[in-house]
Amino acid sequence: MLKFDWRAENWLASLIAADQDHGSAYVGGFAQWTVNEAWMVYAEAGNGRRPNSLNPNGTASGPPFTLSQPSARATTALAGASYTLENGQNINFEYLRDGHGYTAGGEAAYFDAAARAASLPGPAGPAQSGLAVADSPVLLARNYAGLIWQSNPQENTQYWRLLATRNLADHSMQWNGYAEKNLNPHLTVFVNALANSGGGRSEFAGLIRRSFTAGVKIFIF
After folding, report:
1. pLDDT attached to residue 80
2. pTM
3. CA 22 to CA 25: how far, in whole Å?
4. What confidence score (pLDDT) does residue 119 get?
5. Tally of structural domains, the chain
6. Where are the beta strands (DSSP E) in 85-209?
7. How many angstroms separate the Cα of 177 from the Cα of each of 76, 171, 180?
8. In angstroms, rounded to a whole number, what is the distance separating the alpha carbons of residues 107 and 100?
9. Edge to edge, what strands does the sheet with 143-150 contain?
């Protein structure tokens, strides 16, 4: 791996080149600019292959899904702006384009193939349904918008974050809230709540509508 960094008073940038496990090169970069005490803008992008690509079959014959290994080369890019409030809290606005995801037509074909997989008799049905869930792209579509509001990251005893993400192809939404609090140097409690909205043939609401997790982090030393 090679990494180059450039730093100045109000901006920084990085360029990364690496060889991936499946034998193809990855190239990526990151840059940020502090406009003033309140605003910062940033962007990052990477181009490479992923270990596999799930291909939905749009015809009635043949298996609903096939795998390509590795995937075709594609670029994932993110651009955002961060605003810091006087109390130290941050509000971030982000746009993400993931070239590894499906187009709007490809996402529709994915749900068509998933419905076919669920109706297959014998072991083929669970096997193909497993492919649909386990080997789908990390993000199903290509274009997303996000809004993040988080507490002051300099606080040592507590942290919270609110996140809203919209799939711009199927218009489904994911709402996420996370909070944690240090009770003492060895014990932290946390909660995470998730709510998805959209149709049954949408990324965020297709499998899970609501979830809630509560837990404890224990630090031995």
Report:
1. 97
2. 0.89
3. 9
4. 85
5. 1
6. 90-98, 143-150, 158-167, 173-184, 187-197
7. 25, 20, 11
8. 12
9. 2-7, 11-19, 25-34, 39-48, 74-84, 90-98, 143-150, 158-167, 173-184, 187-197, 210-218
- Whether 83 has a pLDDT exceeding 90, the answer reads yes
Residue span of the structural domain in which 127 resides: 2-218
The CATH number of residue 165's host domain is 2.40.160
CA-wise closest residue to 118 among 133, 107, 108, 105? 133
Q: CA-CA distance, 203 to 107, in Å (whole number)?
A: 9
Per residue in 202-221, pLDDT tens? 999 988 899 999 999 999 87
Q: For residue 133, what pLDDT is reported?
A: 86
Instruction: Give the number of other CB atoms < 10 A from CB of residue 163.
Output: 17
Largest CA distance in the chain: 64
Question: Among all chains, which residue has been given the structure tokens 């008073």?
Answer: 9
The tokens for 79 are 């651009």
Interatomic CA distance for residues 133 and 220, integer angstroms = 36
Task: Give me the DSSP letters along 13-62.
Answer: EEEEEEE-TTS-EEEEEEEEEE-SSSEEEEEEEEEE--S-EEEE--SSSS
Chain segment 167-206, per-residue pLDDT in tens: 999 999 999 999 999 999 899 999 999 999 999 899 999 8
Q: Which residue has the tokens 């300099």?
A: 154
